[in-house]
Amino acid sequence: MKRILLFVTVMVLAACGRVDYNRWSEEKANKWAEDKGWIVGCNYITATAINQIEMWQAESFDPETMDRELAMAEDLGFNTVRVFLSFLVYADDPKGFIERFDQFLGICDKHGIKALPTFWTNGGKLHDPKLGKQPGPFKGVHNSAWVMNPGAEYVNDPAKWPELEKMVKGVIKAFRKDDRVLIWCLYNEPEHLRRGVTSSVPLMAATFKWARECRPTQPLTAPLMVPPGSKSSSFHESTFLMENSDVISFHSYYGPEVTEQMIKILLPYNRPIVCTEYMRRPVSTFQEILPLFKKYNVGAINFGLTAGKCNFNFPWNKVDENGESIPWEYDEPEVWFHDIFHLDGTPYSEGEVEFIKKTIRE
Predict the structure, then answer these.
(1) What percent of the chain has pLDDT over 90?
(2) Which of 181, 238, 188, 225 minimizes the C-alpha distance to 84?
(3) Are the C-beta atoms of 83 and 45 separated by less than 8 Å?
(4) Which residues are within 8 A (CB) of 354 and not within 5 positions of it... i.e. 6 or more apart?
(5) Contact at 8 Å (CB) between 298 and 324?
(6) DSSP-derived 3-state class of residue 300
(7) Is 68 domain-assigned?
(8) Predicted pLDDT at 10
(9) Which of 275, 303, 345 is nearest to 45 (CA)?
(10) Distance between alpha carbon 66 and the CA centroid of its chain, in Å?
(11) Do 149 and 87 touch, CB atoms closer than 8 A?
């Protein structure tokens, strides 16, 4: 109850400072959701890529693997994949990036899947990312080379934002009427302030403005990272995204009780709700969480598909006094954290796969 009261207070205060650039009405957003049906899928990166750079740059773009893995997603009954874009790759070759993203959308469409592209994210372990050959997997480290996009030096410096505006407008204008794109996620976990990011709100506000100016036919969103009022939540970031998203999105790596509490907090806003990250075994499992999302008609996008270079099947690492990851000592965890399939396409758990298929199709 205390959290709920805090959240209501936050929302009232936020109304005074929101940046509402032609936000979709509740009616329009709910009509959109009615037409789309239940959104269910996964966060996706090719198993052959260690980060967003390797997924999208020309020399490592891997449509063969995409085709094979998205066929596996289709077989599960998934209709959506969320992907993270790369500013470095776009800035180096805008035309090539657009062409490769279009090719990716074509592969998605072949398998009856829509894409949920994500622009900015404050999360990432790779220091000083560069184009070209990327690091190999670091044994025992979850997500060892993910890239902050665009990085603190851009987030904190409005003088650099014209470069970011070019990417946002370049990508959205190219696909603003494309039915293969489901939702534009403008900023992943903006509450996640790290590695020098002072606040995500100014860039997030600018990005919403740029996106609105493109007049996309798809809705815009940015996700809540944690329950409002909890230790890791951030007042400014959470209030802004709640006041400006067309579709409400959130993340939950918690068990069913907390996940249901988050859903009930969001339901009164009378907008479509999509959980764009969930599932970390054994705390949060498909068997516990997927039926909950179906009950409330909340979109369900778990983290991970195939256990590849990112080591998403390993748990989040503990860190040393310098904040660096301490590798796990085993070759493979007995209980996978994320992901559903081995590289050869065999499931981590046959029973889990059958449960996913049954829940989606029944």
Answers:
(1) 86
(2) 188
(3) yes
(4) none
(5) no
(6) strand
(7) yes
(8) 38
(9) 303
(10) 18
(11) yes
3 state SS of 299: strand
Beta-ladder partners of 188 = 121
Structure tokens at 7: 């959240």
What residue numbers bound the domain in which 124 lies? 2-7+38-361
> For residue 272, with 0-12 CB atoms within 10 Å meaning exposed, 13-18 middle and 19 or more buried, which class applies?
buried
Mean pLDDT, rounded, for 37-53:
98
**Tokens 């020399």 label which residue?**
59
> What CA–CA distance (Å, rounded) separates 132 from 58?
9
In this model, does residue 7 exceed pLDDT 70?
no
> CA of 19: how far to CAs of 16, 22, 157, 208, 245, in Å?
9, 9, 20, 8, 10
Strand 184-188 vs strand 273-278: parallel, antiparallel, or unpaired?
Answer: unpaired
- Report residue 325 as tokens: 């990851």
Q: How is residue 267 annotated by DSSP?
A: G
Per the CB < 8 A criterion, the answer to whether 155 and 87 are in contact is no
**Which contacts of 6-14 are long-range, i.e. CB under 8 A and separated by 24 or more positions?**
6/228, 6/229, 7/228, 7/229, 7/265, 10/228, 10/229, 10/235, 10/238, 10/239, 11/239, 11/242, 11/243, 13/239, 14/239, 14/240, 14/242, 14/243
From the CA atom positions of the chain, what is the Rg in Å?
Answer: 19
Number of domains in the chain: 1
- Cα–Cα nearest to 200, from 146, 228, 245, 239: 239
Distance spanning both ends of the chain, measured CA to CA: 35
Q: Summarize the confidence of residues 310-322 as an average pLDDT.
A: 94
pLDDT of 6 over the 80 cut: no
**Contact (CB, 8 A) for 90 and 172:** no
* Count of Cβ atoms closer than 10 Å to residue 19 Cβ: 15
The model's pTM = 0.93
Q: What is the pLDDT of residue 4?
A: 40
> Is the residue at 22 inside a domain?
no
Question: Torsions phi, psi of 249, nearest 5?
Answer: -130, 155
**How far are the Cα atoms of 155, 184, 230 from residue 198, in angstroms, in the given order?**
8, 24, 19
CATH number of the domain residue 261 falls in: 3.20.20.80
340 occurs within a structural domain: yes
- Residue 221 inside a domain? The answer is yes
Residues 180-196 have a mean pLDDT of 92
Give the Cα separation of 256 and 56 in Å (integer): 35
